Amino acid sequence: MQQLRHESANMAKKIEIIEISQRKLLGKDLDSCSPEELQDIGNQIETSLSNIRARKTQLFQEQIEQLQEKETLLLMENARLAKQCGAQPFQQSNQVVSYLSSCSKSSDIVETDLYIGLPQMRCL
């Protein structure tokens, strides 16, 4: 029973130390810190931030790769469907963007006609 009380007291002390450390890492209760402690806290935060940024970069790279794979599959599906319909598939998605931007720059007229199918590569 004595040993359990001793372990419980040790655990409570460790929890208190961890909570104090956490508050300091969050920028709270820094009044009692020495310059060396503040430097150590700053170094820990910089290391953590570096790790977070590296992980974030890795996740973004993985997402980019997944989206590029998905884009490739969609382009292949688009080409297959265009071939099945007997239409010419778009070679690059930039064609649509350049078409839309050139149309918006060339006139202030709004076209209200509804067309079904691929857009014609012309502007009013």
TrEMBL record:
One of its GO terms (cellular component) is nucleus. GO terms for molecular function: DNA-binding transcription factor activity. It comes from the Eukaryota. Residues 1-91 form the K-box domain. PROSITE patterns: K_BOX. InterPro entries: TF_Kbox (IPR002487). This is K-box domain-containing protein. It comes from Salix dunnii.
